[in-house]
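Below is a typical protein record.
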Amino acid sequence: MYCIANGVVDDYHIPLPWHRFALKLYLKHIHFVVIEKAIDTLEIGSGIQEAYDDEGLLTSYDSFEGTRWLGQTFTPQENFKLTKFELYLKRQSTISTIWVLFRNTDINGHPIPPNLASYEFPGNELLETFTWREIAITYPNLVAFTKYAIICVGPDLPTGHYPHWGLDSIGALYPRGCYERSTNSGSSWISDTNKDFGFRAYGEYETGEKKAGLLHVRHPALSTIVHKRGEATVNRYESLSSLDEEYLTGQVGIDVEAGDIIEATTITGIEKKYQVV
């Protein structure tokens, strides 16, 4: 048997008989050749996306308890995944539970139910001096140019026992939101654009670069190639070569990302695996 139709010849350009051709294929290695290197130096961090946090300006405060709720609205300038808040809070004395609510706002910029997320913690964890209290509220996707509200709610307490939220009450400078107050547990709200509470909204950010690469898989007679990314199969190439139908595939180009696994098999059953780095 000769593979003349495939153009498979020896060094003297004489068509190879089947047994010599098969031996040549068996001895030939599968080669993975990087044409363009895949790059993945992306790192995920968490940083402040929106804030009013100049402590030199947060020299006043307002109190929240029972039906008296306080809120601060803010407007992201870009989409981001919310990872936490920090609020400028303190307590006067013993306090039980404090609730922090995260909500959308209506066309007038006031908070509206339902809660997008919420968080509660023992009020006694607050110090008796103003500090930044971490609020473990997350949300998958804040939408740019959409106004949101962060709300503080406390238990019924006697005068002199209220928790305080630090604020700037003299011409506050945060331009994309403002102070909100409700005296009926959030049924209605009053805004004051000259006041802002101390807050920080944190979101995920990416640094680095991610770029696909190009990999060539080479062998005189490739049979199958499986391209995997994690647990998923990105692509599977079958019947790349056939002696019966007299065609051979000697090279396959694949767009890859760092970490991908490429599994190649020849028609003689040789297998080789390669991980993209």
Summary: DSSP finds one helix and 23 strands in the chain. The chain has two domains: 4-41+210-275, 44-207.
